[in-house]
Amino acid sequence: MKSKKMSIANFMKNNYFQVVRGGLNSTFQDNGRENLYHIGLPFSGVMDKRNYLIANKLINNNENDPVIEFAFQGPLLKYFGVTRDIVITGNVNFKIIRNDYTEHLGECYRTIKINDGDTIDIISTNKSVYGYFSISGGFKLSKVWGSFSTTLRAKVGPNNGNKLINGQEIKLNEPKEAIDRKLDFINSNIEFIRVIKGTNFDYFSEQSLKDFFSKKYQVTKLSDRMGMRLEGSKLINIKSTNIKSEGLVKGTIQVPADGKPIILLSDHGTLGGYPKLGVVISADYDKLVQIPPGSKVKFKEIELKDAENLYKLYNMETNNILNKII
C-alpha cells in the first residue's frame, strides 16, 4: 500500500516537460473554437489539420486533444517522468538526446519512447512551416472558451494565451498504454492553390484578375498565423479600395490599396474593410499554410460546386489515412 502511494506521488511530481527553448512560435492548439466571431474571436486552431489528426491518432490520443504546434524552429523539451510515447508529424528535423547523453535522429510519423531525463530537440521544419508534437496521455490543460487553442494577439487559450517560453513547465496527464506505430506518409505538394470568387471579385480590373490566375506570387516574410502577405503583380482596383467592414473567414484573399494580396489564416481578424478577391478552398488550406516565405505560389479559379466536392474528397482521403493507423 505504501509503495503504491509512493508511486502515485512520484507520478504527480515528475511527469512534466521543462521548456529549455521555447522555439520561434510554439503554441498549444486543437481543432479550434466555434461560434465566437460575434465577440471578435477567430476560429484559431491548428494550421495543418491533417498532420494534427495524424499526430493524435498515432499516439492513441483523442481526436481533439491539444498538441504543440511549432513553426520553423520548434521547442527543446526536457522530460521528467515515467516512460511514455511521443510523436512528431510534418516535415521536421529533430533529435532525441537520451539521459546518458547519447543522441539519435528522430523519425516523423513514428511513435518514440522517451524516458526520465531525455530531451527532445525539435531543430527545424524542412521546406515547410508547421509541425506537430503529441505525447501519450496528452498535456494537462484547461479549455478556454471551449477550446485548447491559443490565439496570441487576443491572449486567449491555455498557457495564459502565450507561446511557450524558456524555463516554463508543462504538466502532463497520465500516459496511456505503450504502443509502437508508424505511418508511411509523404506531405505532397499541389501545382495550384485553388480559389473561389470573393464578394468583391468584380472590383478588380480584367487584366489584374488574369495576372492573379496566371502569374506566380511570392510568399513574403510578413506571414504568420494571422495572414500571409504576397508579392507579385499589383492588383488594380477599379471601384473602391475600401468597403464597409464585413465578416471574414480563413482563406479570404483581401487586397489593400497597395494592390498586394493578403490571405487570411487561422488567427485572422473577424471583420475587415478591404475588398475580397476570393477565398482559398478548404481542401487546399493545409498545403497553403505549409508554403514557406520566399516560395512561389500559383492560383487557379474554380467554381463553388467543385470546391465542395474537393472538400469531400479531402475528408475521405484524411479518413483513409487515419484508418491505416491501427
Structure description:
- This protein has 326 residues and is an alpha+beta fold.
- It folds into two domains: 170 residues, no CATH class; 131 residues, Cyclophilin-like (Cyclophilin, Beta Barrel), CATH 2.40.100.10.
- An eight-stranded mixed sheet has the order 20-13-14-17-16-19-12-21.
- The longest helix is centred in the C-terminal third of the chain and has 20 residues.
Keywords:
eight-stranded mixed beta sheet; 2 domains; 326 residues; single chain; alpha+beta; 5 helices; Cyclophilin
A few lines on this structure:
By secondary structure, the protein is an alpha+beta fold. It contains 5 helices and 21 strands.
Topology:
Elements: H1 2-14, E1 16-21, E2 27-29, H2 49-58, E3 67-71, E4 76-80, E5 84-89, E6 92-97, E7 103-105, E8 112-114, E9 119-125, E10 130-135, E11 169-171, E12 193-197, H3 206-212, E13 217-223, E14 227-231, E15 246-247, E16 252-254, E17 262-264, E18 271-272, E19 276-280, H4 285-289, E20 296-297, E21 299-301, H5 304-323
Parallel strand pairs: 12-21
Antiparallel strand pairs: 1-4, 1-11, 2-3, 3-10, 4-9, 5-8, 5-10, 6-7, 6-9, 12-19, 13-14, 13-20, 14-17, 15-18, 16-17, 16-19
Overall strand count: 21
Pairing-aware structural class of the strands and helices? alpha+beta
- Cα-to-Cα separation, first versus last residue: 36 Å
Q: In this structure, how is the largest beta sheet organized?
A: 8 strands, mixed
Q: Taking all residues together, what is the mean pLDDT?
A: 94
Flag low-confidence runs.
1-12
Beta fraction of the residues? Answer: 25-35%
Side-by-side strand order of the widest sheet = 20-13-14-17-16-19-12-21
Question: Could you estimate the helical fraction of the residues in percent?
Answer: 10-25%
Helix tally? 5
Q: Give the C-alpha Rg.
A: 21 Å
- H and E string: HEEHEEEEEEEEEEHEEEEEEEHEEH
How many structural units, i.e. domains? 2
Tell me the overall shape. Answer: elongated
